[in-house]
Design a protein that fits this description.
heterodimer, A: 113 residues, mainly beta, four-stranded antiparallel beta sheet, 57% strand, B: 112 residues, six-stranded mixed beta sheet, five-stranded antiparallel beta sheet, 0% helix
């Protein structure tokens, strides 16, 4: 969905490096989410935010941090990357007030060597 | 842990045939959604069914929900090669504040 963009689309990094993944949206949604996808495990929620000053841990937040700089931007950081963080990362958005449809970005493929 | 589990994990059919995928979940839900993912790309929402609904249609898609069995099925009729993708169910449990929990997905291959 072009309304939700992620940068970079692909990244190779080394163990111990800090890396940031960016997500921007033009949908005007208040709620934003970060997921990771591993083969055979579906998507797992890392962090989510319902507003600019709201940050909530998801199922697998250890080793990750996030920043919600503005309504339209939600960044995911790996402070010290490790190989088992190699995965496909997705950002998603949804409207406030409902448990409704989520709109996904194209994903960032991360490889940690 | 995953809330939803899709079955089968993989399905291969010929164009024109119907494809049925099943999803089972563990806890009470408000809604169940189905998403589609083309290889390596973002998920796209297909259909949402609420817990008080039993069946819903959208084009060639038919979704059923049986809350007593905690299960749902997605039927794609008259499949096309372009339907080749992975399909995921996602649930939002009661009291989980807009968080979706995704299943592990069914990989559908439609051959000509």
């Amino acid at each position: 969905d072009a309304d939700v963009t992620q940068t970079p689309r692909n990244r190779i990094t080394k163990t111990g490096k800090r890396i940031m993944l960016e997500c921007s949206q033009t949908k005007g949604h208040d709620r934003m989410y970060w997921y990771r996808q591993d083969p055979g495990l579906g998507l797992r929620l890392i962090y989510y935010s319902f507003d600019v000053k709201d940050i909530n841990k998801g199922e697998i937040s250890d080793g990750y941090s996030v920043s919600r700089q503005a309504q339209a931007k939600f960044s995911l950081s790996l402070e010290s990357a490790i190989p088992n963080q190699t995965a496909l990362y997705f950002c998603a958005t949804s409207l406030a007030g409902g448990k409704e449809t989520q709109y996904f970005g194209p994903g960032t493929r991360l490889l940690v060597l | 842990s995953q809330q939803g589990e899709e079955d089968p994990q993989a399905l291969s059919i010929q164009e024109g045939e119907n494809a049925t995928m099943n999803c089972s979940y563990k806890t009470s839900i408000n809604n169940l959604q189905w998403y589609r993912q083309n290889s390596g790309r973002g998920l796209v929402h297909l259909i949402l069914i609420r817990s008080n609904e039993r069946e819903k249609h959208s084009g060639r898609l038919r979704v059923t929900l049986d809350t007593s069995k905690k299960s749902s099925s997605l039927l794609i009729t008259a499949s096309r090669a372009a339907d080749t993708a992975s399909y995921f169910c996602a649930t939002d449990g009661t009291g989980t504040a807009s968080k979706l929990t995704f299943g592990t997905g069914t990989r559908l291959q439609v051959t000509l």
